[in-house]
Design goal:
Layout: H1 6-13, H2 23-48, E1 54-58, E2 69-72, H3 78-100, H4 102-107, H5 109-113, H6 121-138, H7 143-168, H8 212-230, H9 239-255, E3 263-266, E4 269-272, H10 273-291, E5 304-305
Parallel strand pairs: 1-5
Antiparallel strand pairs: 1-2, 3-4
Length: 306
């Protein structure tokens, strides 16, 4: 494992970079940039075919000292959009992780708050979703259309982020693998991983675990391709986002069956926080897909936002 990507330079070239580059942070940054790029492409496409209204921006060609506004594609606000999502997402991910590990938090609150690890994806998704929804309404954009535009990129970004978890060995791995049950044609590293040199310093050499981050990356990539193919759907605006919620919930619920996580008693049922949220997303996604199944109206969205 390479908790710091700068360690690769040490192995390959024999010297260390003066500033350590943490693999988890690097992959999260790559995930955010990928999602932003895909969102920009979708905003432009939807704007050009009339599915999404424009926004007013300062005319970059205006003479110095003169202010002039023009109507442009919403892709011009993707930068602000992305920064809001990153900061609110990290805050939400940290809060949900603390709620999932209250015992550890009360034992050393400052250490947990300021640690570079310990984030819960669903927490980031929920909090960032609320913040972005407020921003979208402020800009006068159609929330359902914006949600559709975000769906494919969010799915792929999730998978890329999981690669960061795998490289750093941050504990988001599976339960002890049944090595004897490994199919002969499957590489060992895809079935059982000891996460040597993981950032937590845990020795798994005697009981290798399932490398669930890799499984999630593969699953998220396949779901991204499905969502990308479905983005020209004929259903009502917002339908694709509900597909994303349902598909993402199913993926997470399945992986939780072989993943290490804290369990809680919920109405007499033992489950992890991720399992509970996954079920909520599956139910919400299914209901949303059913309600938005009706074909979209023929009249495209029109108008200009302030």
């Amino acid at each position: 494992m390479y908790p710091r990507l700068s360690d690769i330079f040490q192995d390959l070239f024999g010297f260390s970079l003066p500033i350590p580059i943490y693999s988890f942070g690097f992959m999260v940054a790559l995930a955010a940039m990928t999602a932003a790029w895909l969102l920009q492409k979708e905003f432009d496409r939807m704007y050009n075919i009339g599915q999404l209204s424009g926004v007013k921006i300062d005319d970059p060609t205006a003479k110095k000292g003169r202010t002039k506004q023009i109507v442009a594609s919403p892709s011009f606000i993707v930068g602000t959009f992305t920064m809001l999502a990153i900061f609110s997402g990290f805050a939400g991910a940290k809060v949900f992780h603390i709620l999932e590990n209250l015992g550890t938090f009360f034992a050393a609150p400052l250490r947990m708050i300021f640690s570079t690890g310990g984030f819960t994806f669903y927490g980031g998704l929920v909090v960032a979703g609320v913040v972005i929804a407020r921003y979208v309404k402020k800009k006068g954009l159609d929330l359902s259309s914006v949600a559709d535009a975000n769906a494919p990129g969010l799915m792929l970004a999730y998978g890329i982020g999981r690669i960061g978890c795998h490289l750093s060995g941050d504990g988001d791995w599976g339960i002890a693998a049944d090595v004897a049950a490994k199919p002969s044609w499957l590489p060992t590293w895809l079935w059982a991983e000891d996460y040597a040199n993981n950032i937590l310093g845990i020795d798994l050499s005697s009981a290798p675990v399932y490398p669930t981050p890799i499984y999630e990356f593969v699953g998220a990539s396949l779901l991204f391709m499905m969502l990308w193919r479905l983005r020209n759907h004929n259903h009502r605006k917002g339908w694709l986002f509900w597909v994303y919620l349902l598909a993402g919930g199913v993926e997470r619920l399945l992986i939780e069956q072989i993943r290490v996580n804290n369990e809680f008693d919920v109405f007499g049922i033992t489950a992890t926080q991720a399992e509970v949220l996954a079920v909520v997303f599956i139910v919400a996604g299914g209901i949303g897909m059913w309600r938005f199944w009706r074909p979209a109206e023929a009249t495209p969205e029109s108008g200009v936002t302030a």
